[in-house]
Amino acid sequence: MLFKQSLKLIFTHHPAFMLTTLPESRLPSGLRKSLSLARILPPAFLSLLSALALLSSAANSFAQTGKELYGADIYWNATPNDVNNLLKKMKSQTDANFQMEIRTLGQISENPEQNPVLFRSGHYRFSYAPQEREKLRKYLLNGGMIIFNTGLGSKPFYDSVVEELKKIFPEQPLQKLSPDHPIFHSHYDLDRVEYTKAVNASGFRGNEPWFDGIEVNCRVVALVSRWCMAAGWQGEVQEDWQAYKPDSSFKLGVNILSYASAMRAWAKNAAQAMRFVDKLKSYSDSVSVAQVTYDGIWKTRHAGLPVMLQTFNARTGIPVKFHLKELRLSDPAIFNSPVIYMTGHESFELKQEEKAALKKYLENGGFLFAEACCGRKGFDQSFRDLIRSVLPDKPLERIPQNAQLFKQPNNITAVGVTPTLMQESGQARAEPTLFGVMFNGNLGLVYSPFGLSGGWEMSQSPYARGINDVSATQIGQNVMLYSITH
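Structure (tokenized):
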């Protein structure tokens, strides 16, 4: 899909690592090419940054990307034509308008308005200072994005990135992105790529792209490419380099910046999304809702569930205070929560003791409400596999349209869907699609394969396969009412 925005790239060059850049292809038509390049060498020759700006004649707003390299490596500019080649490729595809500028990391603001995307590539180990980590964290949470590229597949550089991201986001794990992630489909459908022989020789036998990501509120804020993309942008790639072949490199770059451009515009609006404020002072009772934690990205939205629970109180007038917890299924406290909620994006696997606890919880009257956030297929498949494993005699079955679940407090006969899901189905509205498992005549499990929590926050991702804001809120309210009355 096209997003009428301009894009600005910042490429930081520290004399230490092989330089490379990022592309962006699914850009608005009608962009004219204009290229200017400036370079500045900061004091002590410690860092050289360059910036690449795409200015759109169709829009006044712009997104930016930054590329940062540093150190004392004589090969820091081993691929001097990678950016130029990329610009030529993008010009041929998008008639894009670019110009260059130079900035140091110190010049990059915590507010990503001026530099929405940073790009860094390298060969060797590195570490950030504590103040740099704090600055990057604020920058990323404020809507920015950083992309790391491993020079020639450098393991030391990759390991350093992993270690640094753990320190920057200790609460949000870095996870390999599954082939259905929007980054691999934002312009090209690219869930399969071509690698050099050296990648296979390293022990990796797959043909899917290897990107790791930190996701916050359904947005990749930090992206790590395990194998080198820059060499492919430069031109020919040798088989003994751990890299993507040129065609795959360019397409991946195009997809990354298409995603970054779309998500930057969305992130600015999402920052204004509704946030939970508990204004109710007295309740006759308290119901504990526990969000299930597990190994992986289990918290995809931070405000969605609290917001939905507040709208439930406002819609129904039921004087119930929902107390939120975050628990692993193996925690005995899970049995003190009559309702548990589970979501995610990517594939996951529960431990045996967690599966056993879930089975016991459901068979003893507990209620599980689950959703595949953004309608992601990785989580959907894993969740279905989980239920087959935990409840082999009770398959997930679609809840019929005339079920009580769809009648109170909202009479739901059809739901609105997100643009991405509408593009797939060709329909703006559809029958609600929920699956469930019955226990003693009542639903004890309700599952949505399409995203809901983004709608609860009134900020569905532009790539979400989900239910729109109004319908998602109505479904959430109905499920919660059913859970406490049956």
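The first strand starts at residue 6 and ends at 13. DSSP finds twelve helices and 19 strands in the chain.
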